[in-house]
Write a structure and sequence with these properties.
Distance between the termini of chain A: 42 Å
Number of helices of chain A: 5
Largest sheet of chain A: 13 strands, antiparallel
Radius of gyration of chain A: 18 Å
Number of strands of chain A: 14
Strand content of chain A: 35-45%
Helix content of chain A: 10-25%
Oligomer: homodimer
Chain lengths: ~270, ~270
């Protein structure tokens, strides 16, 4: 039985630089599919492309219009291939036009001097000692993740009591569990609840317009994480005139930074 | 007399979705031009495009190969225009192929509930009480900025004494002074010295592969900043197997976040 994420990101060849896919009801959001699967399937097109070199270093996805439920095609082109890096442009196409664009940098990494600089989050409890977040009233995609909040979970209820900040600290993995790889990590990087919901304890119409993820880990490091929970943190810097940002980190359960991810999000009052 | 940044980012129409430009010796770097002017001129193509809607919210530039000194063309296309947002794809083209790609999100912002969340940097001295960083031994582009470091300046000398972190806190503006706008802010977002130089107090061959900037401010807020110094902070999260990240913030001198910016950078030992 195929994992829901593998269903949602499955692509079949549809010509040169072309792949065909289909949105998955398991990852349905308020309008169209969960953005994380859109990121994951765009990345997957480059990963599956016969000319692909190395592993992803950076992925930027711009959400140009709501993805309609149903069929889509992805046009994925390597625009420049160097000795150890490769630059990609992808578009998710539907009859209505382009629904998302993406760029990616792939690279063959080499062993160098390496060092962490950011500290893994403090005050962390074992994942199995933190209760799983409620799914009541949440859109379907939330069921595809096991989230365990130590700080900054979804306000319940939305009581409109504005908070001083919207920082979150949580354990998160795919549900059902699935071994970590770049596709799963690209999806997990968009699995955070909107900062404005947490800050204002108030629902608002929102939509990510641009999301960038940086992959600090090798394929081997992701494989070593297996299907265990990742430790994640998220925060915002500013909310202003219809847009706020989010910056987040995805750590292994042994305190290794696997990805950092940033987004700008549209919101209404 | 035209400001050097306006020279470096000047574009003339060269057909539908096409602009012609020329690299500027004032912003020469070790190999090719300073990446900040590449970001700025790619953004400028969208700003100058007759179909442009609103102001920039997000800009991602991928540096696909060194930009050669001399002429270039920019292909800048709005891929999707919605009611209040517009999505762009740009390519900087030279005879050798594509030297940089970019995506941008533009938007017409509306007044909403707004609030800061990040705090402006602490321990800040007035700009005129901090000496300007030395230009000795620096590539030409460094002369185009007035940088005043309160923390994490360029190591002098490179003594190879590894530091526990590579955080920087500085005042920075164009030199000569120039009123702030989106073009200048896009350039300033790439004006930080490489984190790995500061962390290791050691020179290394480096090159940014992908840079994303988020613009939190309106054109009016940028104009209000005038040509005064911005307050900037930068740090890294991790250095691993040939790549490190940088995350930075650009604040007005009144403590308003104007932009946040992130990049992944290739390095060799």
């Amino acid at each position: 039985m195929q994992h829901p994420l593998d269903q949602a990101t499955a692509l079949s060849p549809a010509g040169e630089h072309r792949f065909a896919g289909y949105t998955s009801p398991a990852y349905a959001n308020m309008v169209g599919p969960f953005g994380g699967t859109t990121c994951a399937v765009l990345l997957n097109a480059a990963l599956l492309h016969p000319e692909r070199l190395g592993d992803p270093i950076a992925l930027t996805v711009n959400f140009t219009s709501p993805v309609a439920d149903g069929a889509f095609e992805i046009d994925a082109r390597p625009l420049r291939t160097n000795r150890s890096t490769q630059h990609w442009f992808m578009q998710l196409l539907q009859p209505d036009g382009v629904a998302a664009t993406a760029t990616a940098v792939f690279a063959q990494r080499r062993s160098t001097w390496s060092a962490p600089e950011a500290e893994p989050p403090a005050g962390v409890l074992p994942a199995d000692s933190v209760p799983r977040a409620s799914l009541a009233g949440r859109p379907p995609w939330v069921r595809c993740f096991d989230m365990r909040f130590m700080e900054g979970g979804m306000p319940d209820p939305f009581d409109g009591q504005e908070q001083p900040h919207a920082r979150s600290r949580l354990w998160v993995r795919d549900e059902p569990p699935r071994p970590l790889d770049f596709v799963a990590l690209a999806s997990l990087c968009d699995s955070f609840f909107p900062r404005v919901f947490i800050r204002r304890r108030k629902f608002a119409p929102i939509g990510t317009v641009s999301l960038t993820s940086y992959f600090h880990a090798s394929a081997e490091q992701l494989a070593a994480q297996g299907d265990r929970h990742l430790l994640a943190t998220a925060r915002a810097l500013a909310y202003r005139d219809g847009y706020f940002d989010q910056t987040a980190e995805m750590w292994s359960d042994e305190g290794v930074l696997l990805a950092s991810t940033h987004q700008m999000v549209y919101f209404r009052d």
